[in-house]
Amino acid sequence: MNGESSALTAIASCRVASRLMSIALDRPLLVRERLAMHTHLALCAACRAYRRQIRRIDAILRTATAAPLPGGEALDAAAREHIRVQLHQAWAREP
Amino acid sequence: MVDPVPAASVSPDAWVEAHAEALFRFALTRLRRRQDAEDAVQEALLAAIQARRDFRGDSSERTWLIGILHHKIVDRIRLLTREDSFADSASATDDADVAWWKPDGHWARPMPAWRQPSSPEEPAEMADKHEFWQQVRRCLAALPERQAQVFALRTFDDVAADDICRQTGISAANLWVLLHRARTRLRDCLGSTWFAPETQP
Ligand SMILES: [Zn+2]
Fold first, then answer.
1. What ipTM does this complex have?
2. Domain carrying residue B39
3. B69-72, long-range: CB < 8 A, 24+ apart
């Protein structure tokens, strides 16, 4: 089996390769997935940039774990009051 | 016998006062729609009233409530997923895919370079950059709802992919598609705004 020609026929499209780059952020890639991704990356500058950029975003956004993002919309007064009333009713029912 | 919960903090008014706002913002980032976020907060606080004797006091009250809220958010995403029978349509090509990839699977648009990180500590340094997180929020708001929801669970809450599938009923194959699309859109959105070479923080 000629390794070079089998690698060439197995070259993934940017669409498939970039999906593997995304999956790599979620679980370890299988050996054949890693091979397909790295073969593509070696040949494609756009996908190298894509991978660098989604990894950079991932690393930054992960720092927001378990906290509200800073800023953003506030709970409106009517909703807050509704929640308060519901809690009071539940509280009264609880022993 | 020592009650682990300070009596003063366990009252509906005190909880609403101390936590409702933060819980709402937490839920809104993850669910996107105000009504869903309000419902999830209410459900979480009602559950907390029933479960308050389980609170051990070994974490902060806020952390405990966020944990309950997280479960309510996942429940809601599962219901939404079931309702719109999204599981059947996620693997189909969505309109936006045409914009990202040509029919042969190559990128349809150039992949512009980003400005360099100011330092290797970039992730930590971004924590208090308010305008950055506002931009993240705008970019997340532009994502289709289910993409934004699973992206938030995976990235902000660090829920393992197989746990997301089990808890929401989304298949693994569909989850990879949703997360890939979410990251591709976010990369484009943040790349054309915050990370564009001419934009300085
Ligand atoms: Zn490529």
1. 0.84
2. 7-85
3. B69/B23, B69/B26, B69/B27, B69/B40, B69/B41, B69/B44, B70/B157, B71/B44, B72/B27, B72/B40, B72/B43, B72/B44, B72/B47
